[in-house]
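Tokens as discussed.
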């Protein structure tokens, strides 16, 4: 009875953590966090083993759902329960973070990265050459953009990207916007989803499809990144992390990751951190392969959603007929 009580108690608690992102707008629904329920089930089983005594020591009590804090998903009032606003939720994720200790990079991860990059060379190299030509044709200045990021065990490195903005574009706007997302804990929509005048002609397409991240293959070959892992953050962003959130640098940053294929721009900052910690605790060659194969469909869906937003903003009258015809 004691084990069953603890398991039920913790399962009910983790079910409350599952983000409920529903149909927020009349024109469509926000992207759902596909793996959030699976994440909650895994964490529930983990804590049901480690908190048997603590969970049954207290009498079960009714949950007042009317008092649950919520966050607004968009301007028309759609809301969703916040993932980390309750004290009990914070305690659970602190426990998860504590379990992600510093460890050496598995040998299989390096072998898998180099093997896949080598095998796919005939695919990504010609594509990179085409993108380089498009950037050179549309904008004066360097093709590549380098930016300092926080890597494995807080080591700093220069991350490569294709340049998608004007040479003289300021970056303070992006830093302030990301700081706002961290504080508000709302869905992490890209800044250019609302229109960004700093982008060059082909920049929006590159960012929507994720092709601007392709040069990070060189970071993978240099051992600074992996194909799969948490996205590397800026030093200014890392300074704002809480102690438990900093555990996400206990693994190699990745070109893609568990968060990217499980909601990405439809999830909050806290949910992103939770997914990164879940991956670091459960990484395996099979999981990496699954994430890599899921990345392409996720990017296609992201590009289509970006196109729909652009159509609604630029020519709402004609866009519906154009989309239906295609």
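Sequence:
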């Amino acid at each position: 009875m004691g084990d069953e009580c603890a398991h039920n108690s913790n399962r009910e608690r983790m079910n409350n953590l599952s983000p409920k992102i529903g149909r927020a707008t009349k024109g469509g629904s926000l992207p759902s966090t596909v793996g959030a329920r699976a994440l909650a089930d895994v964490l529930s089983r983990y804590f049901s083993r480690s908190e048997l005594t603590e969970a049954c020591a207290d009498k079960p009590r009714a949950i007042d759902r009317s008092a649950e804090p919520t966050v607004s998903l968009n301007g028309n009032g759609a809301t969703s329960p916040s993932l980390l606003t309750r004290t009990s939720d914070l305690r659970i994720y602190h426990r998860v973070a504590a379990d992600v200790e510093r460890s050496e990079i598995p040998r299989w991860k390096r072998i898998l990265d180099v093997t896949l990059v080598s095998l796919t060379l005939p695919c990504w190299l010609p594509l990179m050459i085409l993108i380089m030509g498009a950037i050179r044709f549309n904008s004066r200045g360097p093709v590549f953009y380098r930016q300092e990021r926080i890597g494995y065990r807080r080591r700093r490195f220069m991350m490569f990207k294709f340049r998608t903005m004007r040479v003289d574009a300021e970056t303070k706007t992006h830093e302030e916007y990301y700081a706002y997302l961290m504080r508000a804990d709302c869905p992490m929509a890209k800044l250019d989803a609302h229109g960004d005048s700093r982008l060059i002609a082909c920049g929006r397409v590159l960012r929507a499809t994720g092709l601007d991240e392709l040069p990070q293959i060189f970071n993978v070959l240099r051992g600074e990144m992996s194909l799969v892992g948490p996205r590397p953050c800026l030093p200014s962003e890392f300074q704002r992390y809480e102690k438990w959130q900093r555990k996400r640098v206990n693994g190699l940053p990745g070109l893609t990751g568990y968060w990217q294929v499980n909601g990405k721009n439809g999830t909050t900052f806290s949910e992103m951190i939770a997914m990164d910690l879940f991956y670091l605790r459960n990484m395996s060659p099979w999981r990496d392969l699954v994430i890599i194969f899921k990345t392409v469909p996720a990017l296609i869906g992201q590009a289509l959603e970006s196109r729909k937003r652009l159509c609604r903003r630029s020519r709402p009258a004609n866009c519906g007929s154009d989309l239906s015809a295609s």
